[in-house]
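Closing statement on the adenosine monophosphate sub-project.
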Amino acid sequence: MPLSLIARGSMKQNPMSELRAGMPRARSNERHDMTKFSDLGLNPLLMKAITDAGYETPTPIQAQAIPLLLEDKDLLGIAQTGTGKTAAFALPTLDFLLEFPEKRRARSTRVLVLAPTRELAGQIAESFSTYSRHMDCKVQTVFGGVNINAQRRALQNGTDVLVATPGRLLDLVSQKALTLQDVDVLILDEADQMLDMGFIHDLKKIVAQVPKDRQTLLFSATMPKLISDLAQQFLDNPVRVSVTPPSTTAERVDQGLYHVSNNDKLELLFDVLNNPEIDRALVFTRTKHGADKVVRKLLAKGLDAKAIHGNKSQPQRLKALDAFRNGNCKVLVATDIAARGIDIDGISHVVNFEVPNVPEQYVHRIGRTARAGRTGLAVSFVAEDERYYLRDIEKTIGMEIDVLKAPEGTKVDLLPTPDPNERLYKPKGPARGTGGRGGERRPQKSSRPQGKARPQGAGKSSGGGKPGGRNRGAKKRNLEGARG
Ligand code: AMP
């Protein structure tokens, strides 16, 4: 679709902007614009890895979070993938391991990172390996969907950093292949997605097994009440750092929409994708079944596409991602869960085949095209029963999304643009499921936190240490001395 056909959404006063502006921030981004990596106080071995990686300046979340984490503080980070948040938590964590080296213990880890999906876990582990390349640091990953025995064996001699999805981690712990009693640093990444996927009970079980005397970091793209409740339970007097609130992401992306009946969406998708200007398009469907159906239809019409969702095996998912990354397959059809957290550059188009019922989800989706400072195009197919959600999205992002001209040569009869004053009602029936779960899991009914996972006042600042002198509180004091 020619760029000229997509006009930038017209800005208007966003009634929620004040609310957003009120999001807790430890530091303003501007204040750190000029921060250099050398200002952060990281170990020279890490500085060398940063140079190797070609990073010149810290991203805002790095500039804000790293100094606080080096002071051993707990942190609540509101940041999406693409902001550089992985380095923001990995670098100070590795700095801690360098500062306080310890012999690896069998079936044990000192750093535990929890992530919602295997893809994200793999990417986080890769980042840890990249940044720790000049030090002696073992990084391992465990996730479900693959044989557990190889993971049991790999853990036998212990590791320094373990990146895990919650379910598989608990399986390994219950099989005594791993203990969490030596964890010094606990990191929960994409916490909102973990909750969406129903991991709340697993998270509580895990946190209950990790020593109270630890540093805890929780990152989330959004901050619903459930996450702040969880943060209150898991974190000890955390500092808050927030970057790129959702509304700013939306402003960087060119957005447009078609009013189209559900029956005509597949035909329209083919016409939209059949455009040589598209390098890589990410198409979002609500359900796994829907994703497969779209792929089948596109393939039948001779357009190469692959699906990625929770029912696909690990090799299938990796194969699809690889083909998409290296340009062999220009259309990836995904559910929200499968797509979130995946670091793919150069996505030229996002197509919302179905409109999400949670505005933040829309922002996540379209944000996939606007990575690394590029602008992208996001096209939404809006059926009559999705207009209510569209209005919700427009309210949240503070823009009206423009109606696009029909793709050239299309035979689809687009629906007329509805009256903006039309009275809309929230669709009844089962939740559409696009609010984070991508239709992949049913929400957990009792996902409200119940009771404290940590006894009050039992955080690391209470001075309670682990037996055997492995006491982060003591380390913290040393650290303060060492860092002046
Ligand atoms: P993340 O948000 O952690 O998924 O990071 C997104 C991408 O940004 C990754 O490909 C990182 O390698 C890259 N990245 C992280 N920090 C920096 C930096 N300071 N400069 C340039 N690229 C970075």
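DSSP finds 18 helices and 16 strands in the chain. With this model delivered, the sub-project is considered complete and its resources will be redirected to Aim 3.
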